[in-house]
Every structure is written in structure tokens, then in C-alpha cells.
Design goal:
GO terms for molecular function: hydrolase activity. The protein is built from nine helices and seven strands, in the order E-E-H-E-H-E-H-E-H-H-H-H-E-H-E-H. The chain is of the alpha/beta class. The chain has a seven-stranded mixed β-sheet with strand order 1-3-2-4-5-6-7, sandwiched between helices. Helix 2 packs across helix 3. It is globular, with a radius of gyration of 17 Å. The relative contact order is 0.16.
Length: about 270
């Protein structure tokens, strides 16, 4: 179980609104500040109260990462349950990558107003991605430790850009996002590999959206169908976006499609 209370960041709406709050759930190798670059300011301006969760062992300060490898997916689920319970009303969950898996596990016993899965870990887990990268992008595994530990060089930047970002984003521009990444729990990484072997429980009956980028190298857009089928969800593909579709040059399209969906919930 987590050894500290998860950190929940609040970004108040810039104008009064009756919209449900948005709770942003980050993915692996990152932390809550990921959302404050583009999407949170966008939705604050539109009258949405925004919250962002740092999973245990995650945060923008190195001290937040103590004992990181002690935490697994179920610990992150507990963090999310704590965050949801702390809000005045049920939020809309907006999750990315590993955060989508955590949100799905939470929604087996908890609930929310609605949920958006951005570039979700597919029901088949991450084994296929790891195997594909080993064959086609072997430099990724060599450069990932440099990226998450602040030792990035030009080769690191180009490798990470080719995997995580849109082809339309120059590799040198990704340097601005280095503070948003960090190491990930080895326990959580292993659990994502074995995700398909876990028996799913019941799921909350809430509106769901599945979104991904057409240029996502981590979880290709063709994989979105499997998550959407499980949740009877709408699927939205952002043309030209990569795995980090909330940071890519296509982020206004991501934000706009999210807004359309949110407004359809009313």
C-alpha cells in the first residue's frame, strides 16, 4: 500500500461553471505536471475545475520518487480512489497510457461521471509493444534510462521523439518536455506486461471515450478498438498525433475533441 497520501493538484476554473470537475491521471514515466502545459489551462478557461493526481512515487521533485519500485498498479488504484473521494462531486476522469489501466482497475469497484482514455494500454498489455521495439527500435531501451534520469543527449532526444511524439515535432523541441518525465516503478512496468492474465471484474456503466494518435508508435491507433469494445466507447483518432497527443502540435485537436465529448455528456 502507498506509504504517503497521494498529491492532488487543484487548478480552479477561471469562470463560474456548473460543469463536473476534471481529474487528470498521468501515465507511466511521467507525473501530474504533464497536464498543466496545454490541457489544464485550456479547460480552466472554459470554466472547468481541474485536478491532477501524482501517483505514489511520482512528482516533479526527486524526493517524491523515494521507494518508487515499491509501488504497483493496485497502489496507483488506491491513489486514484483517494483522489476521487476527496472531490466534492464525481469527476470526469481523463487518463493517459498507464493511467488508463489504473482508471479501468479503479472503475471495477469505483465510479466517476465519465472517463476518457487517451492512448490507453490495450487489454493485451504492453508485451507486444516491448517485443516490437526490441526488433525495430533497439536504441529505445538503451536511451530510456538517459531520458528519465536527466542524462539525455542528442541521440536520446531523437530516439524518444521518434517513439513518443508526432513526426511533425522536431526532436530538438522535445527538450522542453524533459522535466515532465521520470523513472517508473519496475513493479508497475512488470504488471503492465502481465495485464492480459488478470481476470477483469465488473465495470462502472458510465460514458467513455477512447482517443489516440494516428502516429502513435507505442500503442498504434489500430489497438484502440479493443479498449473501445470493452467500454462500448466512442473512438476518436487525432490525425498526425503521437503517443503524447496532449503535448504534440496536434494538441488543439485533442482538446477540441475532448470538449465536444464533454459537452455531449450534458
Amino acid at each position: 500500500m502507498p506509504t504517503k497520501t497521494p498529491v492532488i493538484h487543484h487548478y480552479p476554473a477561471h469562470q463560474a461553471s456548473t460543469q463536473p470537475p476534471l481529474l487528470f491521471v498521468h501515465g507511466g514515466y511521467s507525473h501530474a505536471a504533464l497536464w498543466s502545459v496545454r490541457l489544464i489551462p485550456y479547460f480552466q478557461d472554459l470554466g472547468y475545475n481541474c485536478y491532477a493526481l501524482d501517483f505514489s512515487g511520482h512528482g516533479s521533485h526527486p524526493g517524491d520518487r523515494l521507494n518508487l519500485d515499491d509501488f504497483g498498479i493496485e497502489d496507483y488504484v488506491t491513489d486514484l480512489a483517494t483522489a476521487v473521494a476527496s472531490l466534492p462531486v464525481e469527476p470526469v476522469l481523463i487518463a493517459h497510457s498507464m493511467g488508463c489501466l489504473v482508471s479501468q482497475r479503479f472503475l471495477e469497484h469505483g465510479t466517476a461521471h465519465a472517463v476518457a482514455f487517451l492512448a490507453p494500454v490495450p487489454p493485451t498489455g504492453t508485451g507486444g509493444t516491448a517485443s516490437r521495439f526490441a526488433l525495430t527500435m533497439p536504441d529505445f531501451f538503451a536511451e530510456l534510462p538517459n531520458a528519465v534520469n536527466g542524462a539525455a543527449n542528442e541521440k536520446t532526444m531523437r530516439t524518444m521523439a521518434s517513439v513518443y511524439f508526432s513526426p511533425s515535432l522536431a526532436p530538438e523541441e522535445t527538450v522542453q518536455y524533459l522535466p515532465l518525465i521520470q523513472p517508473e516503478s519496475e513493479k508497475a512496468v512488470a504488471e503492465m506486461l502481465t495485464a492480459p492474465f488478470r481476470i477483469a471484474r465488473s465495470r462502472a456503466r458510465i460514458p467513455a471515450l477512447v482517443m489516440g494518435g494516428s502516429a502513435d508508435q507505442v500503442f498504434p491507433a489500430s489497438m484502440l478498438f479493443f479498449t473501445a469494445a470493452v467500454w462500448n466507447a466512442r473512438t476518436q483518432i487525432i490525425d498526425g498525433a503521437g503517443h503524447m497527443l496532449m503535448l504534440d502540435p496536434q494538441w488543439p485537436d485533442t482538446a477540441g475533441k475532448l470538449l465536444e465529448w464533454l459537452e455531449s455528456l450534458a
